[in-house]
Amino acid sequence: MTSVSIIGGTGYTGSELLRLLANHSKIDEIEHITSRKESGNSILKIHPHLKSMGYDNLCFEDISLDNINSDVVFCATPHGASMSIVPQLYEKGIKVIDLSGDYRFEDISTYEEWYNLKHTGKLNAAYGLPELHRETIKKANLIANPGCFPTGAILSIAPLVEKGIIEERVIFDSKTGVSGAGVEASQTTHYPNVNENLKPYKLTNHRHTPEIEKELNKLVENSKNNMKVSFTPHLAPFTRGILTTAHTYLKEEYLSIAKDEIVEIYEKFYKNEHFVRIYDNDMVSLTGVRGSNFCDIAGFEVDRNGRLIVISAIDNLVKGASGQAIQNMNIIMGFDEKEGINYCGLKP
Amino acid sequence: MTSVSIIGGTGYTGSELLRLLANHSKIDEIEHITSRKESGNSILKIHPHLKSMGYDNLCFEDISLDNINSDVVFCATPHGASMSIVPQLYEKGIKVIDLSGDYRFEDISTYEEWYNLKHTGKLNAAYGLPELHRETIKKANLIANPGCFPTGAILSIAPLVEKGIIEERVIFDSKTGVSGAGVEASQTTHYPNVNENLKPYKLTNHRHTPEIEKELNKLVENSKNNMKVSFTPHLAPFTRGILTTAHTYLKEEYLSIAKDEIVEIYEKFYKNEHFVRIYDNDMVSLTGVRGSNFCDIAGFEVDRNGRLIVISAIDNLVKGASGQAIQNMNIIMGFDEKEGINYCGLKP
Amino acid sequence: MTSVSIIGGTGYTGSELLRLLANHSKIDEIEHITSRKESGNSILKIHPHLKSMGYDNLCFEDISLDNINSDVVFCATPHGASMSIVPQLYEKGIKVIDLSGDYRFEDISTYEEWYNLKHTGKLNAAYGLPELHRETIKKANLIANPGCFPTGAILSIAPLVEKGIIEERVIFDSKTGVSGAGVEASQTTHYPNVNENLKPYKLTNHRHTPEIEKELNKLVENSKNNMKVSFTPHLAPFTRGILTTAHTYLKEEYLSIAKDEIVEIYEKFYKNEHFVRIYDNDMVSLTGVRGSNFCDIAGFEVDRNGRLIVISAIDNLVKGASGQAIQNMNIIMGFDEKEGINYCGLKP
Amino acid sequence: MTSVSIIGGTGYTGSELLRLLANHSKIDEIEHITSRKESGNSILKIHPHLKSMGYDNLCFEDISLDNINSDVVFCATPHGASMSIVPQLYEKGIKVIDLSGDYRFEDISTYEEWYNLKHTGKLNAAYGLPELHRETIKKANLIANPGCFPTGAILSIAPLVEKGIIEERVIFDSKTGVSGAGVEASQTTHYPNVNENLKPYKLTNHRHTPEIEKELNKLVENSKNNMKVSFTPHLAPFTRGILTTAHTYLKEEYLSIAKDEIVEIYEKFYKNEHFVRIYDNDMVSLTGVRGSNFCDIAGFEVDRNGRLIVISAIDNLVKGASGQAIQNMNIIMGFDEKEGINYCGLKP
Questions:
Q1: CATH architecture assigned to B149-316
Q2: Residues of chain D positioned with their CB less than 8 A from the CB of A200
């Protein structure tokens, strides 16, 4: 049996790891779950909904990394914090799945520019989007778990980019639930400010932009980093989920493509992917993926101007974070990729 | 392996049965799922979120009861419809779990009075609240699955009633999510009518009242049906969950009871009950039981007037319907009672 | 023309005073609006929605009370703060409307007990519920504006109490929107904690309890402070509004009273009250009073146990605070009582 | 004094007309309000929140147009119905404000193509967007009140189009509240389908597209109908409001334009427009315009790819329908343009 530890266990991603691992047949133990602030306290103080799920004796610890000997460690730590933790675990030979942005860029300078942080140094990490990089992930000891917005955005148009039928400029207009802002209370998450409201934030410089762009560029044949990704997230009045509306324009020579042909491109591209589901637009909902590791994709319509619209729906905390992290663990540990995360959405 | 069928599979309870059974290790097959209106259609037409969960080839059927040979049949049929279906299955020796109100009353006249329907005749049914009637359920071939409100209301004060420390008059002020109104659209469920609103309906004559009352009376020593239950449900602006606020008055001789003693009464009463969790009030939330089979209980405070307040939280579609139905199936089939329903709430 | 000042203008009650005063025909000027923290800043920084409403040059000030010479001052200050501000204004002969709890109790010891504060000394204040105390308000220079919960609770059963037809024990089960918690962000108001959730807080010792009780006692003929009020508020997932469900029991001699007779009691009691509307239950909604100064009352049903249920709906920030404050100002200044607050709810 | 009638008064736009007209100082009477279905019933049956607002004796009528002699008639009738009603009123010399799409197109063939209806014949209507067409409106007897989405979309980028600094392709990604779907209940508006969800509908062929496009083309110097508008609305989980995110690309020669210069273009364009407010992004909210006739505009940021993003926020039922209709009435009747509609948003 396999033991895991979680670094930084008080947030929503830590909570979701525990929720999903509770029913994972290959995990018999959470060796350690760390928190400086809550050290010594039961995890039920912070995550009371996990009562009676096997964690009633599990406490947060403020522990030295030296003492961690799990097979797998999840770093549910913020950007900037992970890169001071991961190297030590990595060198011990522990398989590490990092949920922060610290190891997502092959090119450190892009990271440093967009995150405005000095990086501690590149490691040999795989970008943990299994649908695009499964073979690399299998061999990796460090997984950079993708950002929530990039997961939905990349999967939404990867088949179009690979097929080369859309122009270089793409716009992702994403709508995220409030859980994406984390567990800390702020004016941003103050109920009267969110409820009956919806609005964009980081209109032009969200750091997930280059993450999306570099992944799309990998799909372009003979890429010269042509893709020009514009990305704007909106905070919407629900708790979980990201709906991404991808606005793309067909290249002139593909203007007469039929919707069926577009759907076929998607179905072929994702034919072996359990966690990507292709839908008619009417059938997609955020509740359909709520609590689930699925990424649902729909749309595929072209208007008079040659604009091709595609939408994707994910749960930001599952496929956009902890579920995908477990999917990556399953891959690197040789488990069934679906183990512990094969749930449909909690709809309605 | 065990096969099950579902009569009436297009509603929310049918949907939830499918969602939970998809990961139930003892169920290998949905033999039949019926719908007159959707006969011949894939269940994915109505329940698209179940795609890739093992049901992609499952279709609704409009089938004669003669052709049903499952080990267990769930009747997810409305009040009044069940009693025209259940007898035939029951006589064939099939174990039946009926989610309607048709077999919940030992006394048919109470049913006929409150449901304003003529009953087709009493059968030997067990009231399927395992926390109170596990031994009876084990031996039963027909389970009357409790109503959603009664489940939360009865469990919230059963220990007090059994202990005999509260007066006969109790008031349940319940707040339910909109999924309790079913899948059909109506002015009641029209978003602009529900959102930013909350209000009582059936202020005084909800048919769950006598169901609660007769179960509480069973707990009274030498009962002469003394309990006087007043119950008022409110429609609240969320989708899942029932929060029941039980207002009771301590008998004069117990006015000096301490909160700790009350908590102890509950912990003792439910000490073997996995699906009942006792909490401090601050720790309870409807999201903590969302999608889960737990009934969380908190409160236990007494005010200057001797009013003792207790609250319970359940997911109306799970512990209040389909989850409890599977719990009952597990009991009558001799499975682990937690099999397939041992999930915590989807919080946040 | 009349000039007003607002002490403590950065919260929701300050915001609502400005919103309503902007269209009040008798008020030509906000002389001062104070805030220590935002002193010098435009009120639009905190209340951007008031742009172009006549306040574009209005700034918060941190000003000595000596310099305030308005005809009317609204104290939108918290409990405990008001009593250090009001006396000085009161002695200058300024008419003061205090929105805190500091002057709501004739009996200072009750205040000190429930608010756990030492009071600076009683003043001659009128309890500002016009429907019950209009004549006293007319002559007062200091108005203690009622609490939000007491407003809805008292109005909901005042006619029953005055008529003497209900027992002494009454239970108010109230459901409030999140704006009642104020503008400050906290775990309590963190969107993921509120959304899809609903739960009681201060189950038994909310300080609005004695405020309700003493007002109801005033309505009892030859009262010996008999009323035994139990009050429990719930935080519900909407922004504005309080729905109060009053559970009362009819005295034995009135058990056969018809619903029509009860409605008649209410219509008679409130026949001259513009801001109280009597409804059938189906017609009431929180949106129907949203942004409005109305208190809508419905219910009036009696169950088998003699329980009589009444509900009231108000906007906690309007009839429950700033709207009622302006209603009080209208009365003490001799304006038309409806001036500036005669709006229906923003429904849907 | 002026009398008005409303044709089709049971929907949300009828309701909002009544709400706003109740406090309009120039309107002393609703002469007639029509409804075939509710004929003879009090308007309070359908709009109970209007009780005590001056309409307690107003009933719906099923009346011949011959009998209508108001100064102004609002047609709150659906697309297709208006064109069978308006001509008769228009010929009698009554000033008509039509809230449907029937008279919004100078070019009937565009209407017929997008609405898939045969038109009864063009009349001399002014497109009722006062910020662009005030002088024309002043002289008109028939006003085609703009669509809700077009109002927010057109106003959001009109200054950019007139200035000629953006490319021809523009994308409007709009998010609307559920009240836009009207009062009738349907699966689309069923609470469990909307709540915790958000998704596009009419991805590519919404009929508001040509309405936006033709208005933008009017702003282009020497236009050859160059603008290529792509518009996709999303249904979002709130009741009121439309947030439109306009994605445009700067022409190459304007790539170095500063944000301040863009803001200046807007402030100049709208300098005399009371109902358009320019904001920093952080200051905009849908609650800030809820119940209000303001259109708030923000954004103005340019990203690495030359994409310029602008957002607008309106209340779909006010500036997007009934408020704008009253604004138009004020203009054609020579009233103060702000009369009866000068309210800020109901925030929070």
A1: 2-Layer Sandwich (3.30)
A2: 245, 281, 299, 309, 311
